[in-house]
Hints:
The protein is α+β, with helices and mostly antiparallel strands and 108 residues long.
Amino acid sequence: MAATLTAPVVETYDIAFPAEWSYYEYNRGVNAVVTMTEAAPRHKLLWGTESTVPEIFTGSAITSRRMLADALQQRVDIGSPPGKLTIPLAERILYKNAEKLYGMSIDA
C-alpha cells in the first residue's frame, strides 16, 4: 500500500492512508508524511483515513495522527519548520484546510 497524494480540480492535496498502513507500515507512513509536508504547500494539505469498520477507522485515525505528529517532529528536529509553527501546521492539515475548502467550522 502507498499513501496517495492527489491534486483534485480545486488544487488541494489529500493525504489518504489505507487502514492497513496504520498497523503494518508505520515508519514508511511517517516518511511519506515528511515528504508530503515538504513538497506540498501547507494550505493545500488535507488529512483523512478510510475504513468501513468503525474499530479499524478509529484505530487508523489515532495511529495516522501519531504519524503526523512523528513526521512533524522529525521536521522540527532538522529545523524546518521552526517549532513554533508545528502546531499551526498540524491544525491546518488535520482540519483547518478542510474547513476552508468545504465552508465548514468545528465551532458551529
